[in-house]
Write a structure and sequence with these properties.
218 residues, alpha/beta, Rossmann fold, DNA polymerase, domain 1, 2 domains, six-stranded parallel β-sheet, 9 helices, 11% strand
């Protein structure tokens, strides 16, 4: 079956923001007396904050301290890091190619709704995507499949006519558990070993665009 729909992750896939998210988490936890190395947090970027915080620190998100850290993390990211972010290489061009081909696009991200709109503007996805789902639209965040399943409902196409594009092992696990094939990009900072399970791996959106006729998009 030809691919008619594309489910898109954002952070690390369309916007070079994974390091920024990790630094925001490290800073927010440090302000509350929790010191976690950047490298530890960086490996967790891509899963939802409700999973990252307890995994990194042992603090549950729903506790008073967890809520305070989560709130501060968002403030730091939006105020200190978001203004300096850029699209990943070729992100805008790849999105325009999908639009030209008539492929429906929907966003599936662990970012919050408040963060999502400015991120989409950075890569100009706001001009071409048909729908978007964020952590606010799912009971469980990545690597649980809820966000991908919500995106599938939004896109309204069979699973075998849809492919996801992401950059972390958490994207891959979420997509596979939702029954959707996924293409992985290395620009999020993960190795091919980490991205095992993807149907194909490319360096960045520009690399996929250059190979699009030989890819699953045909």
């Amino acid at each position: 079956m030809s691919i008619r729909g594309v489910i898109l992750d954002v952070d690390g896939t369309l916007v070079d923001s994974n390091d920024a998210h990790a630094r925001a988490w490290v800073a927010a936890m440090a302000e509350h007396g929790v010191r976690i190395p950047f490298g530890v947090v960086r490996r967790m970027i891509g899963m939802g904050g409700d999973k990252l915080l307890p995994e990194a620190s042992g603090i549950r998100e729903e506790t008073p301290k967890g809520k305070a850290i989560t709130k501060r993390r968002k403030e730091i990211f939006l105020q200190q890091f978001l203004p300096g972010l850029f699209p990943t290489r070729g992100a805008e061009e790849l999105l325009r190619e999908f639009k030209k081909r008539g492929q429906k696009m929907v966003i599936a991200t662990s970012a919050t709704a408040e963060e999502l709109d400015p991120l989409l503007r950075i890569c100009r996805a706001d001009q071409v995507v048909e729908a978007k789902t964020s952590s606010d639209d799912a009971e469980r965040s990545k690597p649980d499949p809820d966000i991908v399943s919500a995106a599938l409902k939004q896109i309204g196409l069979p699973k075998d006519q849809t492919v996801m594009i992401g950059d972390t092992p958490y994207d891959i696990e979420a997509a596979r558990r939702a029954g959707v094939n996924i293409i992985a990009l290395r620009c999020g900072g993960w190795t091919d070993h980490d991205l095992h399970g993807a149907v194909a791996i490319y360096d960045h959106p520009s690399h996929l665009l250059s190979e699009v006729k030989r890819s699953v998009f045909g």
